[in-house]
Amino acid sequence: MKEKEHQSIEWKESWQDEYLKWICGYANAYGGTIYIGTDDNGNVVGIDNARELLERIPNKITDTMGIIADVNLLYKGELEYLQIIVDKYPSLISFRGKYYYRSGSTMREITGKELERALLKTQGRTWDGVPLPKLTVSDLKQDAIQLFKDKAVKRGRLTKEEVSVEDTILMDNLHLIDEDGYLIRAAMLAFYKDPEKWVTGSYIKIGYFGKSDSDLMYQDEMHGPLIEQVDKTVDLVYTKYMKALIDYEGVQRIEQFMFHKDAFREILLNAIVHKDYSSCNPIQISVYEDKIYIWNDGEMPPNLDSTDKLFMKHSSKPYNPKLANVFFKSGMIEAWGRGFEKIREACALYDGPLPEYEINEAGIMVLCKACDRYLRLLRDDGQHPDHHPNQNGQDVNKLIIDFCKDPKSVQEIMDEFDFDSRTSFRRKYLTPMLKNGVLKMTIPEKPSSKNQKYFS
């Protein structure tokens, strides 16, 4: 049965020396097979110089790359053609001083940071596993280490005995010290007080945007050890950047955010462990009235290139495995891809949509859309309770209660807090506060609701 052409099989009608690049690319990827003497559909057309190439091609491969490939003479009827089988090599292979890699249906040259990563991989290392000879355990921030210990014990990932050791032993147990006794980059990112001294862009940038992408209203940056950045960023986003809208279920007061905090936290943690820190770009969070964007200059495994695939069962392959292990041991992230299931569960609590992932060479962009309940509250009378002009960031209910120390009428309350709709004011504030007993009605001097006043 004829094999189909795919990323590890190529059909070629005749031999060209440029195919040596393809052999180099196969050796650096997952191996592959090239057939010489076939058309683009895999039909054998034969070659006249098969026996000559049978001797010449192996020599060229060995002379230019120092590797051995199996070159076999095959027959179909009276037609002769060649099969070149290339194995995957554990070390990175070069062809005339350049490195090539087979990716999908294309062959491309490996350069820059990708070449550095590939070279590290052949040594059994990752970018976050590279040692930093001038960094010592005493340079690490004690508050960050203590935060890690508290979280690890609380989540049951480590015992009190396991964290009650010297910092050097703890770092070694977390595999953050290499065989020569040096701390690695993952330790620096997680625990060093100023990781930007070593890696530019190892921080998080947050901005609030108005009606357009160019309408940046205010922004913040979160610096310091990554283990501290997570909680601080989540807290800042959910206090300064995403004020809750207020709704009621009966007499129960509900604070409704546009996107569930637990889901946002998981997305942020994914951004941290999958980020390509060698790019020198910060993680960027853009908050709008009804959506959030989270971007990082990183990549996912090749088989996880869409939203649908990410939310299916899959193995966990973090871009920075050493750093991911720190966050796993702290209890902040899950193993085996469980984080995406937690995102799904959190979104379901809000009956909101799953985040949408766009994964390409520019990085990973995650779009988090507001849930329907939040959008309904946002549209309702055009008011946003937690951003009321007379509020100054305080709870409207509390301000009304304080205002009614002396009895006030509905109109007096509405005038004080600039409410336009009497119906909306009664439904959102007055009726729930009366039911909760935090406001009471006076006995009117005259039998008319206009004379009715309210006091706390």
TrEMBL record:
Residues 5-110 form the Schlafen AlbA-2 domain. Residues 395-454 form the Filamentation induced by cAMP protein Fic-like C-terminal domain. Transmembrane segments: none annotated. Pfam families: Fic-like_C, HATPase_c_4, SLFN_AlbA_2. One of its GO terms (molecular function) is helicase activity. This is ATP-dependent DNA helicase RecG. The keyword Hydrolase applies. It comes from Agathobacter rectalis.
